[in-house]
Design a protein that fits this description.
mainly alpha; MetI-like fold; 10 helices
C-alpha cells in the first residue's frame, strides 16, 4: 500500500477538530453581539478578497499558459524571454512585487499611456486615478503567472512524445495537436497543483491590505483599531480564511481522487 493510498484511507480526525473549532467560533458569532458586529464589518471585505483572487487568478492562468507554451517554443528568442521572465519573477517576494507594481510600475504605465494618448488629442489620466485594487490585481497576476507557467510546462511535457509524433503523422496541425491530444491529457496533471496555487493566492491576497485595499485583512485591521478587541476580531478573520481555504482543499482532494479513479479504468 502506497503512502498516498494510506493517507486517503485515514479517518480525517484533523477535519473533525477543525470543524469543532469552526462550529464553536460560529456559535460565538451568533450568540455574541461583538462577534456578530465584527463579522458584519468584515463581510464587506470578503467580496473584495474574492473579486481580487478570481480576477488575478484568471489573468495569471492565461498568462502562465502563454509563458509555458513560449518556454517550449522552437524559437530560441521566445524560449529565453519566457525563461527570463519566469526565473526573475519567481525570485522576487510577493510583498516586494506588490509594492514595486503599485508605486513604480503603475506610475510608469500611466506616464506611457499619457505619452501615447497626447498625440491623439485625448485627455491624460493621473496616477491616483489608477485604482490601488487593480494595481494589486496586476501584481498578483505577474507574480503567480510565473509559478503557474511551470505547472503548465510540467503538465505539457508529461505527455509521451510518441503520441505527438503519431498526431503529426496523421497531419494534425500544432494547434489541433495541442487542443485534442496534449492539453486534455495534461490537464489531469495540471489541475492539482493549479488548485494549490489558487488556494495560495487566496492567502496571499491578504497582502493587498498594505496598499489600503479594503479586503478581509484590511477590514480586520480597521475594526481592531476601532474597538481594541484584537482577539475577537482576528479570530473572525482567521475563521473566514480557514473556511475558504479548507473548503477548497477538500474539494481539490476529492477532484484528485476522482481523477485517480478514472485513470484506473
Amino acid at each position: 500500500m502506497t503512502p498516498t493510498s494510506q493517507q486517503d484511507k485515514d479517518f480525517p480526525w484533523w477535519l473533525v477538530i477543525a470543524a469543532a473549532i469552526a462550529a464553536y467560533l460560529m456559535y460565538r458569532v451568533v450568540a455574541d453581539d461583538l462577534y456578530a458586529q465584527v463579522l458584519r464589518t468584515l463581510s464587506k471585505g470578503i467580496f473584495v478578497t474574492i473579486f481580487v483572487t478570481l480576477v488575478a487568478f484568471a489573468m495569471a492562468t492565461a498568462l502562465g499558459l502563454l509563458l509555458a507554451v513560449a518556454s517550449m517554443s522552437r524559437f530560441l528568442l521566445l524560449r529565453q524571454l519566457a525563461r527570463f521572465y519566469i526565473e526573475i519573477i519567481r525570485g522576487i517576494p510577493m510583498m516586494v512585487l506588490l509594492l514595486y507594481v503599485a508605486f513604480v510600475l503603475a506610475p510608469a504605465m500611466v506616464a506611457a499611456w499619457n505619452w501615447a494618448v497626447t498625440s491623439f488629442g485625448l485627455e491624460p489620466i493621473r496616477t491616483r486615478d489608477f485604482s490601488l485594487m487593480w494595481r494589486a490585481i496586476i501584481a498578483l497576476t505577474i507574480g503567480y503567472s510565473a509559478f503557474i507557467a511551470e505547472v503548465f510546462r510540467a503538465g505539457l511535457q508529461s505527455i509521451e512524445t510518441g503520441q505527438i509524433e503519431a498526431a503529426k503523422a496523421l497531419g494534425l496541425s500544432g494547434w489541433h495537436r495541442f487542443r485534442h491530444i496534449v492539453f486534455p491529457q495534461a490537464i489531469r496533471t495540471i489541475m492539482p497543483p493549479l488548485g494549490n496555487d489558487f488556494i495560495a493566492m487566496i492567502k496571499d491576497s491578504s497582502l493587498v491590505s498594505v496598499l489600503g485595499v479594503y479586503d478581509i485583512t484590511q477590514a480586520g485591521k480597521i475594526t481592531a483599531a476601532g474597538n481594541f478587541r484584537y482577539f475577537e476580531t482576528y479570530n473572525v478573520v482567521a475563521l473566514i480564511y480557514l473556511i475558504m481555504t479548507v473548503t477548497l482543499s477538500l474539494l481539490l482532494r476529492r477532484l484528485e481522487q476522482r481523477m485517480r479513479r478514472n485513470d484506473h479504468f
